[in-house]
Amino acid sequence: MYRNMFAVFRAQNDLLEKEILDQERGLKGQIATLEKKAHENWVAARQAERKLEESKQEAGQLRNMLTLLDKSNESDSKPPTRE
Predict the structure, then answer these.
(1) Alpha-carbon distance 19 to 62, whole Å?
(2) pLDDT in tens, 53-80
(3) Number of domains in the chain
(4) Which helix (H) or strand (E) holds 45?
């Protein structure tokens, strides 16, 4: 009788251990997938930050060029002064 109960408990224990190991493997796979996605998102964010910085620099350069062109046009459009 005790041997039979022991065998049943042993079988249950083995089944539960297998279930735990399967869940652990599955969760580790999910963690790896999420870590990969997090890294990809970080890389994309860094690229977006670099592109934003480049755009800001380009906008500043274009603004300076526009200012210079406006000053040049203003000086060209002034009527000649008599001395």
Answers:
(1) 64
(2) 999 999 999 999 999 999 988 887 766 6
(3) 1
(4) helix 2-77
Return d(Cα 71, Cα 79) in angstroms, integer: 15
Sign of CA dihedral 54, 60, 65, 69: positive
Q: DSSP code of 80?
A: P
Take residue 19 and report the two structure tokens written for it.
């279930």
For residue 51, what are the domain limits? 44-69
One-letter identity of residue 10: R
pLDDT at 77: 72
The CA distance from 12 to 23, in Å, is 16
Q: Is residue 48 part of a domain?
A: yes
pTM above 0.70, yes or no: no
For residue 79, give the 3-state DSSP assignment.
Answer: coil
Determine the Cα–Cα distance for residues 80 and 46; give it in Å rounded to an integer: 54
Residue 60 lies in a domain: yes
